[in-house]
Amino acid sequence: NSTALTTKQARKPYSLSASLYHIIIMARYYSIPSNLTTIKFCLLFPLLVGMVSAQLSSDFYATSCPNALSTIKSAVESAVSSEARMGASLLRLHFHDCFGCDASVLLDDTTTGQGEKNATPNASLRGFEVIDTIKSKLENLCPGVVSCADILAVVARDSLSAPIWSWPVDLGRRDSITASSAAVNSNIPSPTLDLSGLINAFSYKGFTAKEMVALSGSHTIGQATCGNFRTRIYNETNIDSSYATSLKSNCPSTGGDSNLAPLDVTSPTSFDTAYYTNLINKKGLLHSDQQLFSGGSTDSIVTNYSNNVGALITDFANAMVKMGRLSPLTGTSGQIRKNCRKAN
């Protein structure tokens, strides 16, 4: 029933993620026992992802809208040139849309329900106007062809201006018709999670701990609000004391919740390995950042990425491709929105 799969909310009953829901449905179809173990689940996941990705292709718009990708790239370059911070904001939009990759994060609230934009994990998202501009250009170029979900996926890649940070983007996603704030609250990892919580959150989406650490490298650009790191700088001990002191001047113990600090204090506008070096030096801004280097199983991964930019480039790109394949709507499911902020 494709109708049942047209909304992120419908695809996540009982707070299950879209990925889990599809896997459970497939498991039932193939008569896999209901007491499927975690190991069997992890073995099944790559097969199902492969089945989904087979419906996507990097040249999806080669005939229907051949100038789509160049139009997106030009608009992104213009936006980032006007405001360096916008690159991180656009990358983050894709992260928060996936896990689900259906552009539900772009939908405005309606009279019948709250969308995802105002859910707590998404409250600081920005860059929606850039997406609006791109969508308008594409609608003038190829009406009703390029989905908002695909725009987000391509924008995430193009937001990193350095050509070494690139990956092939599979295309052919369609857009959901509604959004679910409850789904966001249950699916976006919290910045307060400890290492085991982070590993579990990403594992449920089919990611390994190594892939989780690689994706966390996106924090080498962008900023976070004081409200998300206040507890860390005032109450935690695994933080460089001078670093904590420098942050307190703009993040008082009370008030100033929306004040900003760079996630990467060393090179805040460059996508590089400094984020990982900062973790080794106890200069992770968020609690969840520092957990990646806290005496646990991911310490060696952080150390490797700190010293080996080539490994990070490869692993980050592969993880981004994998993330872009998480439960997209394809075929006749969903729709191609004319306006990314509302269903047709």
Automatic annotation (TrEMBL):
Report the active site residues: H96 (proton acceptor)
The reactions it catalyses are:
2 a phenolic donor + H2O2 = 2 a phenolic radical donor + 2 H2O
PROSITE patterns per UniProt? PEROXIDASE_1, PEROXIDASE_2, PEROXIDASE_4
Free-text cofactor note: Binds 2 calcium ions per subunit.
Its keywords, alphabetically, are: Calcium, Disulfide bond, Glycoprotein, Heme, Hydrogen peroxide, Iron, Metal-binding, Oxidoreductase, Peroxidase, Secreted
Disulfide pairs here are C65-C142, C98-C101, C148-C340, C226-C251
Any single GO BP term: hydrogen peroxide catabolic process
Where along this sequence does the record place binding of Ca(2+) 1?
D97, G100, D102, S104, E116
A single GO molecular function term of this UniProt record? heme binding
Q: Which InterPro entries match?
A: Haem_peroxidase, Haem_peroxidase_sf, Peroxidase_pln, Peroxidases_AS, Peroxidases_heam-ligand_BS, Secretory_peroxidase
**CC terms in the record's Gene Ontology section:** extracellular region
Q: Which cofactor does it need?
A: Ca(2+); heme b
Q: What is its main location?
A: secreted
Domain of life of the native organism: Eukaryota
Plant heme peroxidase family profile domain ranges (all copies): 55-344
Q: Which enzyme class, named as a word? A: oxidoreductase
Which Gene3D superfamilies does this UniProt record tie to the protein?
A: 1.10.520.10, Peroxidase, domain 2
Localisation: Secreted
Protein task? Removal of H(2)O(2), oxidation of toxic reductants, biosynthesis and degradation of lignin, suberization, auxin catabolism, response to environmental stresses such as wounding, pathogen attack and oxidative stress. These functions might be dependent on each isozyme/isoform in each plant tissue.
Instruction: Return the similarity comment.
Output: Belongs to the peroxidase family. Ascorbate peroxidase subfamily.
Provide the protein name: Peroxidase
- Please give the organism: Quercus suber (Cork oak)
Q: Which gene encodes it?
A: PNC1_5
